[in-house]
Amino acid sequence: MSEMGSDEGENIIPFQLQFDKPIPFQIKIAEWNPEKDLLAMVTEDSKILLHRFNWQRLWTISPGKPVTCLCWRPDGKAIAVGLEDGTIALHDVENGKLLRSLKPHAVAVVCLNWEEDGQSNTDKIENFSVYEDRTSRFFPPAPRAPKMPGLVAGDSSFMDDGEDSLAELSNTSFRKFNILCSGDQDGSICFSIFGIFQIGKINIHELYVPVQHLDEPASCKIINASIHKVALSKDLCRLVVMCTGELTDCKMKPKEETFSVQDQHGLHCLAMDTSIFWKRKYELHQVAQQASNIEDLTEVIRASLSVMSKQWADAMKTFHDKFHSLSTLIVDNGLESSPQEEFLSLLGGARISPALNQFLVNSLGEVGVKRVLKSVCGTGKELQQIVLDHLQPAAEIIGFRMGELRGLSRWRARYQGIGLDEILLNEATENAGLVLVQVQRFMMVLSSVVQQFSNFFNWLVRSIKYLMQEPNDQLSSYNSELLVVFLKFLYDQDPVKDLLELTEAGDNIEIDLKTIGRVKELLQFGGFQDCDFLQRTLAKEFQHMESSFKMALQMPFTTISRKISCMKLLPLYPLQLSTTQTPTTIPMSLTFYKNELSDDTPCQSGYTDYISFQVPDETFPEIPNCIGIAKGFKQNSNNEKNGYTSLEAVLLSVPNGHSCVDLSLYKDRELVLLLNKTNTNSEGLGEACMMVVETGDLPFISISRSSSLNQWELEDLKGSIVNLEMENEKVRNIPHSAIAPLAVSASRGVACVFAERRRALVYILEEDEDEEITEDK
């Protein structure tokens, strides 16, 4: 096809230009929604924008930290955002609100890949539905975290009332099983089920990578590794990783002889065995459903305790601020008594001291008493409501879900293989029950304290009325015995605060020996194994439960992590330290295509991996300006035992006068190249073009396993380079110099090109007579 330079003759131009618009910002990351005509973009100052296909902006958010990568959930309803500090934030597609925030990495997240299982949610072997969450049968909808007084919507990370996005995120019962993979710049890869439950982590530095050396099996480590791309196959059985690093610590097997490798710092491709996700996806689905909801509910309890603690502290501050002046007046009057003794003296009918009289009549007054009464007793009622509406329901559902996990752990044939430990879950379930016991104790203590404060304030009002010789017959009565108890034990102590705040290691609640003995006697009737729970506060008990839950879930995390192994290493090309391109700027793309002749048997080569990348000119000076494509890196092959693999590769030479800006693998085994012309036009402006290459028509060459680790695989292809010709490919000229990124939507058949001088151009890559691209309402 000849090269086209204008919009004349629409019928022979391969890609239709939808629009060419100026943009007020430079874009560094762009990703199309897989289900809707929506484009998410990240600006240079790390603002995230969501635009419709017609370029209407829907929302803008600013995470407050540098954004390093984006990835859509497979159903397009949420987007994962990788941040420089190692955090992964999930945002709602409808409004951009934060749904969940995880921090699985210690350094910047540089790549994300979210893949879902291609099969339906039915266990064909056992012939039952994968998972039905039974919690809704016995409990109302899970409570949300209470809002801190004084906050307005948007001030915290909790969702506003009336929004169900967070609930939808946690309800995974009828959703296809999916895994979010994330890689960081220190060589770590993390795996999260449904993007919210962390189930595994590997570090490239710690893996021994199987390789061949002189026709003998060997293994190496990759040091100083940095992840650049990850792609999980649609059957969840394989993970392909592109990383940079240096091969070292190579050992011959079974001889365990160590040998050196020269010049092995470069770009490598790894094939990881993640078949555990497919083999145990039903079990992992159930564990993730229960555990992620428990994590949500622990946050509800944590927020409840925090709100309650602050509210009660504010109420107590109001009380102590008002009554502190009494201590000052006692000292000023030369008295040695305490405020409690002064109040007891007044209660006993003795003569009132000048200090107490001045405090009650002049400093405090009836209005002051009622103000403090409203603050303390009103706060007490608010705390009781938080317990009833948030904390207690959350604790009850946690106990039920813990019991569900404990029941699953007893099905050893299915769940022992993923690390679900019955003993640890027994302890976690008991601790969930102990939290409920502590909640009941807290409610009794709070009710008693509020009652005694109210009794104290009623007596003060009557006393002030008496001192001012005003009638007090219509006032509330008081209980003298409760008043004595309050003045002796509660006036300068705060049992509510003690229960809400974490205590020091040795600062436990004192329990008499008789009570402890009775608790131990309950063991023979099925009581709690932990007999020391009465010595802990509510906050301490919650911490105890959370710790045991994390310990129980650490076993599946560790078990799954150990079952993810490296199967193959493909050294692509060396990287010189003086190269002008850094690995983060080298165009590369990873994807999986379904095999046409596949029998749909998972983990049996149902999908072929395609790896495309630009070869830096410094790597192979004799073959400059080339694009490499490799496929079938990890395919099962009977010939592999004979020294051959199913790996095929080809080198493409970019047309003269052009340089590759970015590339993207597209559906139907096509490669989209974004090329800049190296010279300018008559007006001194740069130009670019977009080219689509049919990979199915390329002469791929089978590559045998190298007999030496010092051999780079691409060196076998130097003599068979395919020269791309502008006349022979689908090409569309762009009247601007282009810059990365190139955003291509395989599901919608569109591409967005960003040009210098802040312009965005959207092209339709293919025409469909039956369906037109329209904006989603």
TrEMBL record:
<dbReference type="InterPro" id="IPR024790">
    <property type="entry name" value="APC4_long_dom"/>
</dbReference>
<dbReference type="Pfam" id="PF12896">
    <property type="entry name" value="ANAPC4"/>
</dbReference>
<feature type="domain" description="Anaphase-promoting complex subunit 4-like WD40">
    <location>
        <begin position="31"/>
        <end position="116"/>
    </location>
</feature>
<keyword id="KW-0833">Ubl conjugation pathway</keyword>
<protein>
    <recommendedName>
        <fullName>Anaphase-promoting complex subunit 4</fullName>
    </recommendedName>
</protein>
<keyword id="KW-0132">Cell division</keyword>
<dbReference type="InterPro" id="IPR024977">
    <property type="entry name" value="Apc4-like_WD40_dom"/>
</dbReference>
<dbReference type="Pfam" id="PF12894">
    <property type="entry name" value="ANAPC4_WD40"/>
</dbReference>
<dbReference type="GO" id="GO:0005680">
    <property type="term" value="C:anaphase-promoting complex"/>
</dbReference>
<dbReference type="GO" id="GO:0031145">
    <property type="term" value="P:anaphase-promoting complex-dependent catabolic process"/>
</dbReference>
<dbReference type="InterPro" id="IPR024789">
    <property type="entry name" value="APC4"/>
</dbReference>
<dbReference type="GO" id="GO:0051301">
    <property type="term" value="P:cell division"/>
</dbReference>
<dbReference type="InterPro" id="IPR015943">
    <property type="entry name" value="WD40/YVTN_repeat-like_dom_sf"/>
</dbReference>
<dbReference type="InterPro" id="IPR001680">
    <property type="entry name" value="WD40_rpt"/>
</dbReference>
<keyword id="KW-0498">Mitosis</keyword>
<feature type="domain" description="Anaphase-promoting complex subunit 4 long">
    <location>
        <begin position="268"/>
        <end position="470"/>
    </location>
</feature>
<dbReference type="InterPro" id="IPR036322">
    <property type="entry name" value="WD40_repeat_dom_sf"/>
</dbReference>
<dbReference type="GO" id="GO:0070979">
    <property type="term" value="P:protein K11-linked ubiquitination"/>
</dbReference>
<keyword id="KW-0131">Cell cycle</keyword>
<dbReference type="GO" id="GO:0034399">
    <property type="term" value="C:nuclear periphery"/>
</dbReference>
